[in-house]
From TrEMBL, chain A:
Family: Belongs to the universal ribosomal protein uL4 family.
Entry superkingdom: Eukaryota
GO biological process entries: positive regulation of Notch signaling pathway; translation
Keyword line: Mitochondrion, Ribonucleoprotein, Ribosomal protein
NCBIfam families per UniProt: rplD_bact (TIGR03953)
Subcellular location: Mitochondrion
Protein name (database record): Large ribosomal subunit protein uL4m
Entries under PANTHER family matching the protein: 50S RIBOSOMAL PROTEIN L4, LARGE RIBOSOMAL SUBUNIT PROTEIN UL4M
GO molecular function, one term: structural constituent of ribosome
Gene: Dana\GF15323
Organism: Drosophila ananassae (Fruit fly)
InterPro entries given in the database record: Ribosomal_uL4, Ribosomal_uL4-like, Ribosomal_uL4_dom_sf
A GO cellular component annotation in the UniProt record: mitochondrial inner membrane
One Pfam family this sequence matches: Ribosomal_L4
Predominant location category: mitochondrion
TrEMBL record, chain B:
GO CC list: mitochondrial large ribosomal subunit
InterPro entries cross-referenced by the UniProt entry: Ribosomal_uL15, Ribosomal_uL15/eL18, Ribosomal_uL15/eL18_sf, Ribosomal_uL15_bac-type
PANTHER family: 50S RIBOSOMAL PROTEIN L15, LARGE RIBOSOMAL SUBUNIT PROTEIN UL15M
Pfam annotation, one family: Ribosomal_L27A
Keyword Ribonucleoprotein: yes
Record organism: Drosophila ananassae (Fruit fly)
Family as reported in the entry's similarity comment: Belongs to the universal ribosomal protein uL15 family.
Protein known as: Large ribosomal subunit protein uL15m
Gene Ontology biological process terms, A to Z: translation
Superkingdom, natural source: Eukaryota
Region Disordered: start-end pairs: 20-58
Composition-biased stretches (Basic and acidic residues): 34-49
UniProt keyword list: Ribonucleoprotein, Ribosomal protein
Signal peptide start and end residues: none
Amino acid sequence: MLKNILDKSRQVVFPVARTLTRSSVHGNVVNESPAAVATPAGTKTPLILPQNYGEYAPVSRNTPRQAWIENTDAVQERKVGLIELHPDVFAAQPRVDIIQENVEWQRKYRYVSFAQTKTRAEVRGGGRKPWPQKGMGRARHGSIRSPLFKGGGVVHGPRSPTTHFYMLPFYKRVLGLTSTLSVKLAQDDLHIIENVDIPTKDGQFLKDLIAERNWGPSVLIVDEDHMFPANICQATDELGYVNLMPSFGLNVYSMLKHDTLVLTVAAVKHLEQRLLYQLNRSDAASKGGKFKLDQV
Amino acid sequence: MAHLRETSDKALKLLRTLPRVQIGNLRPNPNSKQNDKRGRAQHGGDKHGAGNKGSGQRQNFMRLGYETGNQPFYLRFPYEPYYKGHHMKRQYPPISLLQLQVLIDTNRIDTSQPIDISTLCNSGLLKLKPAELEYGFQLTDDGLDNFKAKINIEVQHASEAVIAAIEKNGGVIRTAYYDPRSLHMLVNPKKWFQKGVPIPSRMLPPQDAVDYYTNPKNRGYLANPEEISQDRLVLAQKYGYELPKIEKDSAYEMLTTAKDPRQVFYGLEPGWLVNIVDKTITKRKD
């Protein structure tokens, strides 16, 4: 435990430890390889996954991002390999304002307010003139349910159902995802694992793993496939703060709801492919139109 | 973009020393939200900034051009000949050679195919609105010195310098007229094919455009091809470059591809029916 805290504090003191520049990474890999990427005899050799810039060249090649691929077969952390992340997705401008707009949109678009008040017409009674217009020495009134009366109707009160649905512009949603992923990586809250095959269905294993690696407490685990293996499903079932999600469902709100985001290598590749397609498509202007219901 | 790259890197470095970005500590940009309540008293109350009485308070502004009793400017002069028929004049939105070169360099245009209005519109960066009397593109000479591509292009208007710049690189340029319906088809072919209607034939140009499109100097599509090849040599001599021989070019086939004056799409003849669902073409029997 103490060692973990020391490790974490070392990362704060030397912030380049996780996200390194290209040149320094190669140096570090060479230096650290005997210790950090040491693999037990008989297992696979360390995996290096370089970024293929052939299809989508990054805006800048000076800000590459690399991350360790971690194991999930044991509580003890072991670096299985190194993955190069696309800077347009994982080192994008961290637009915190757009992240906020995404969070607000995700809260509002599905929210329907059922608050309801009665108008003077809907309140029971009040059809009769309470007293004659003149001669009583009292103020003139036509109904005891007028808004001036106690127990009368409400003017401009909330009416049910009120939808708060709206669509955030498409590229604000795309930018929200790239910004959040970049923020998570920059703040050491993004971890990459090789797969989601854990050896046991016991939830304690995940608890130990999360404590050992200083994740969380709340963790969102994302894989490309929506059918997760039985072990991890059963292990996370009883842990309310560890959740599973397929990468097609990844969203800004869920990423921020959890302290740590854990992506599998397949999920990283899928997210990169989808987001880079949207960032580079030539008919992007067609996505800027007004939102239409039931559009294809 | 350079400043953006630097700021993103700086911002991400700064974020490493800041508390974790969470739902609880996010807030919108300052002053980005409009308050939907009207201030009271000293907070913009009283008349709420609209003043006292009159058009300011009632928001009933004078109609456009009205000059409070004077003879308005737009009625003062009885005759403006330079606007005569302006609602019928054909518009040709410009694209420059620089824009074209950038589109080619960024892989938005494939130079191994002939370029026409469809190619330009499908790049996603250029728009043509036939409903607003835009009859096609004119190619302008901005970026003329940096134009390096060898292309076969069909536009609706081009100047002599532009024609020379394209032919100097071994390319081919042609100016052609399209009637509004053909333009409508070319702007978004996919949408038009979805109608499932046989392709109509292209109309011939109107009287006042015939001279332009039959002139070999403009590389008009109705000009005599022999006169055009003669004029290619004349232009090369005038601008002082050696005309590359397209007969010996490996892309000879592509460079000499041209549409029939009645044809709208490359490779598709009038009367053919394109079924975009089954991806089949039904051809005419004769």
